[in-house]
Design goal:
Number of strands of chain A: 18
Strand content of chain B: 15-25%
Shape of chain B: globular
Largest sheet of chain B: 8 strands, antiparallel
Number of domains of chain A: 3
Number of helices of chain B: 18
CATH architecture of the largest domain in chain A: 2-Layer Sandwich
Strand content of chain A: 15-25%
Radius of gyration of chain B: 24 Å
CATH topology of the largest domain in chain A: Uridine Diphospho-n-acetylenolpyruvylglucosamine Reductase, domain 3
Helix content of chain B: 25-40%
Distance between the termini of chain A: 18 Å
Strand order of the largest sheet of chain A: 4-5-9-7-8
Shape of chain A: globular
CATH topology of the largest domain in chain B: Uridine Diphospho-n-acetylenolpyruvylglucosamine Reductase, domain 3
Structural class of chain B: alpha+beta
Largest interface: A-B, 109 and 107 residues
Number of strands of chain B: 19
Largest sheet of chain A: 5 strands, antiparallel
Number of helices of chain A: 13
CATH class of the largest domain in chain A: Alpha Beta
Oligomer: heterodimer
Structural class of chain A: alpha+beta
Radius of gyration of chain A: 21 Å
């Protein structure tokens, strides 16, 4: 394979020029920011690497308006630091997937986080990336710079292209600016850990915590016995049994009261411990970033299903495959690391998914070799009508398929 | 406001269309009687009226699919309609098109507490979702002020908000899945009870597309636990600036209240005269703040917010100590619109969003505009998220006043965009703000939106004349204009 040329525009105008040059010369582009999420999706074979890493920096931050405007290659770490000065954060908790491939150096860029469109553990209650993108500017595959959305937190003017661009893996346009909704950071947090539950009992307990109790759990995850010891939090790892995690966040007096409510309601479910804010932050980033499976090479999947069906599907997969798995989003997300296979066990996993949830969910291959991700669709194959519409939508952004060709679908 | 000229050739084929539509939707499902059509001639934006060619009221998704496929085959325009409460004319009929009324899709199909969602047909009312789950301690968060009559399908079309959306999101943030029908009759499902899309977020695009992309026939919406406690504070300020500063200070303190509403002097007086709830009449601005959550949290936050209010110069502070009192605080705000009916024969509700810091400047400028147009304006403001609702008071019986009210409304919306805001926060563009879209968007921005329209409806049959000031043919939109020139990056270092 030949090494592609690299173009490194320094501002939005140069991005537009680069796209027009690519169109004029019939070349395709791989869009790259920090590169920490490059191995998600299908490998891209493009003529030119469009390196956007210089399109970086905070454009404006109006804390009291809850609005942050950034260039796409701004490092998430820089954004976090800036927001922390005003006790704010990105509530969707963008995950850092670099560690999955052994890269712990960087948490990636905001552009990458928005392009993969995933939220972390707080997605359960605070919404995903899509719910926090207020506006985008970019260059489409017609070579035109365009803007969508706005710079205020409430806006319904025109079609909501920001949601469409979020999670598009760079297949619609080259993003040159993002406007995000930011929110106050919880002043305090705690996590109740319940030990020894099986998958089904854990999903029931998580549901109970969400549905029945006046506790407002912000995140709910379950680490089976095969995964819990991989946590860096000793209180979770040391018992060597399954750990069900329930996070409570907010102002101090509120956290104290809700934690007490939660404990008393789940008192007879199993033995528990409480994690303080610091340990809580650590374990929830482990859950969000799937660091329990860090630096491995085995295929890794993330399944999205109706939460109440999670344990049924998890149990079936555990029976069928040699695997380790855990649940996030109260059972609505299953992370699954399998043994190596030519198709990364896609047939078995997507077959089980179809049997258990009949189309109400999807399985995404989050880690596998380039060869496997070329031959096995990393994204759930869509029904023919949705696939047709998706392709028409994509084509109306990028008719010549110059942006990240093949990244989502071959 | 000009709608596209009616296609006379299509009008001439009316009886042919009617018999074909009757073959799909038998009985009383096709309305063509001139008098009966009057019921559909407008929506909540009553200044615009047009009788449609016919109204079709299908009962099943198959019928919707066949009606749309038929319209597609004969090039017949379709205006989808839910409860018809749009404030932007989203359901305004066309003389040469049918209204596709979803009124018979009014059933709640499934309540799923285990997955915290409800599956509904599109013409279930907003409040009916909450009513259906309230006994189990749940509710549906988006609460537009028309929630007693507006439909979930209409909420999806407009991406409706309400007073609680800073904390709980708009419709799109509470929507999990859809069944929909494209103009060619294709039925498809997007999302479901799971979170996050499998691929491109088409669900997010469809929500808020104002009936231009597809017809929704089923929706899965998220329900939340009803907060244990709700309490409200009523803070009076001598200056609007102080009320605005107080809102900013509350946010800066890390508090996201369930609601923050500001009313200006005219709105306060009109509301108080209408419902007599004891609003202070000697203030320029009234700030209503609601906090919800567990009791300990609400008590704690009430103290914080009260202190912030004092620091910001509130001259009157009341804190609700009972549910009855909380509701009385809200009664005036909720009566703000009908109260206008008492002090003016007609009023026109404008809907723009501004960066909150611009509130004093915007209100001062609205005051100046109000004087120069000779029309009174009362302001209510979803202060938490910057969504401003100036209410322009006018008398339609006086020659030229409606037009002047509309001109004033347009001037206010232009002001919103000038200060960094947008044309609509929750009512939609529809026909009302269609011709202002150029104020907020450049041509390339509108082109990209219209291309999405082409991906769904390349003949432009769904709700034409809405949202876009000009309609381009899809073939034209898809054309590429590449200027082959100097390859600007040709000389950049190769790796």
């Amino acid at each position: 394979m030949t090494v592609p040329d690299t173009w490194s525009p320094t501002d939005a105008g140069e991005v537009a020029a680069a796209v027009n040059d690519a169109l004029a010369s019939g070349q395709t582009l791989e869009l790259l920011g920090g590169g920490s999420r490059r191995r998600l999706g299908r490998p891209v074979d493009a003529d030119v690497l469009l390196d956007l890493s210089l399109i970086s920096g905070i454009v404006s931050y109006q804390a009291e308006e809850l609005v942050l405007v950034v260039a796409p290659a701004t490092p998430l770490a820089e954004i976090r630091t800036e927001l922390e000065h005003k006790n704010q954060h990105l509530a969707f908790e963008p995950p850092a997937f670099g560690p999955l491939w052994g890269d712990t150096s960087a948490s990636g860029t905001i552009g990458g986080a928005i392009m993969i469109g995933r939220g972390g553990a707080r997605r359960l209650t605070a919404g995903g990336a899509r719910d926090h993108v207020l506006g985008v500017k970019g260059v489409n595959g017609f070579g035109e710079a365009f803007a969508a959305g706005g710079r205020v937190v409430k806006n319904v003017t025109g079609f909501d292209l920001s949601k469409l661009v979020t999670g598009s893996f760079g297949t619609l346009c080259a993003v040159t600016e993002l406007t995000l909704k930011v929110l106050p950071r919880p002043a305090d947090a705690a996590t109740l850990v319940i030990f020894g539950l099986d998958d089904e009992a854990a999903v029931v307990a998580m549901r109970q915590a969400l549905n029945l109790l006046p506790v407002q759990v912000s995140s709910a995850a379950h680490l089976p016995a095969a995964v819990a010891p991989a946590s860096t939090i000793k209180a979770i790892a040391d018992p060597g049994v399954a750990a069900t995690l329930l996070r409570i966040e907010g102002f101090g007096p509120s956290v104290t009261a809700r934690l007490a409510n939660l404990k008393s309601a789940l008192a007879d479910v199993g033995p528990c411990v409480t994690l303080d804010a610091k340990a809580s932050a650590t374990v929830w980033s482990e859950v969000s970033d799937a660091t329990f499976f860090a630096a491995g090479v085995a295929p890794l999947w993330r399944l999205s299903v109706p939460p109440a069906r999670g344990a049924v599907l998890g149990a079936r997969l555990a029976q069928q495959l040699e695997c380790r798995h855990y649940y996030d989003l109260a059972g609505g997300a299953i992370w699954l690391e399998t043994s190596a296979a030519d198709d990364a066990h896609a047939l078995a996993i997507r077959g089980a998914l179809q049997e258990v949830v009949a189309g109400d969910g999807h399985a995404t291959l989050m880690r596998a070799s380039d060869d496997v991700r070329r031959s096995t669709p990393p994204f759930q194959p869509l029904t023919p009508v949705v696939a047709d519409l998706t392709e028409r939508v994509r084509r109306n952004f990028d008719p010549r398929r110059i942006f990240n060709p093949g990244r989502m679908y071959a | 406001m000009l709608m596209p000229a009616a296609n006379q050739a299509q009008m001439a084929r009316r009886s042919e269309f009617l018999s074909a539509l009757r073959a799909i939707v038998p009985g009383e499902g096709v309305i063509d009687d001139h008098a009966a059509l009057a019921a559909y001639e407008c929506d909540g934006l009553m200044a615009y009226r047009q009788r449609p060619l016919a109204v079709v009221l299908p009962e099943s998704v198959q019928q919707v699919s066949r009606v749309l496929a038929y319209c597609h085959s004969v090039g017949l325009n379709v205006v989808p309609r839910g409860a018809g409460t749009s404030l932007s004319g989203g359901a305004l009929p066309l003389a040469d098109g049918i209204v596709l009324g979803l009124g018979k899709f009014n059933r709640i199909l499934e309540i799923d507490y285990d997955n915290r969602c409800v599956v509904v047909q599109p013409c279930v009312t907003n409040v009916a979702v909450t009513d259906a789950v309230a006994s189990e301690g749940f509710y549906y968060a988006p609460d537009p002020s028309s929630q007693i009559i507006c439909s979930i399908g209409g909420n999806i079309a407009e991406n409706s908000g309400g007073v609680h959306c800073l904390k709980y999101g708009m419709t799109s943030n509470n929507l999990l899945g859809l069944e929909l029908v494209l103009i060619d009759g294709t039925i498809m499902r997007l999302g479901g009870k799971h979170l996050d899309p499998a691929a491109l977020d088409l669900l997010g695009l469809v929500c808020g597309s104002e009936g231009l992309l597809c017809v929704v026939t089923e929706a899965t919406v998220r329900i939340l636990r009803t907060p244990e406690t709700q309490r409200a504070l009523l803070l009076g300020f001598r200056e609007v600036e102080s009320a605005g500063a107080c809102v900013a200070a509350v946010i800066a303190a890390g508090v996201v209240p369930a609601a923050m509403e500001i009313m200006d002097r005219i709105a306060i007086h009109a509301a108080e005269a209408f419902v007599h709830v004891g609003y202070p009449l000697d203030v320029e601005a009234l700030l209503l703040i609601e906090l919800d959550g567990v009791e300990e949290e609400v008590d704690y936050l009430i103290d914080i917010v009260r202190q912030i209010g004092t620091q910001c110069g509130s001259v009157s502070t009341r804190t609700s100590s009972s549910e009855q009192q909380r509701k009385s605080f809200w009664a005036g705000r909720k009566a703000a619109f009908p109260a206008m009916g008492k002090i003016s024969p007609d009023f026109y509700c404008v809907d723009g969003t501004i960066p909150r810091r611009e509130l004093p400047h915007v209100l001062r400028t609205i005051g100046a505009l109000s004087a120069s147009y000779g029309l009174r304006v009362a302001n209510v403001f979803h202060a938490g998220d910057g969504n401003l609702h100036p209410l322009i008071l006018y008398d339609a019986d006086r020659a030229g006043e409606l037009e002047r009210a509309e001109e004033l409304g347009a001037a206010i919306l232009k002001l919103c965009v000038e200060v960094g805001g947008v044309l609509t926060g929750e009512h939609g563009v529809g026909v009302e703000k269609r011709d202002l879209m150029d104020v907020q968007f450049k041509q390339a921005d509108l082109d990209q939106q219209q291309r999405l329209k082409c991906a769904f409806d390349d003949c432009g049959l769904l709700n034409p004349g809405k949202v876009f000031p000009r309609l381009h043919r899809c073939a034209e939109m898809g054309r590429m204009h590449v200027h082959r020139g100097a390859l600007r990056f040709a000389d950049i270092e190769r790796l």
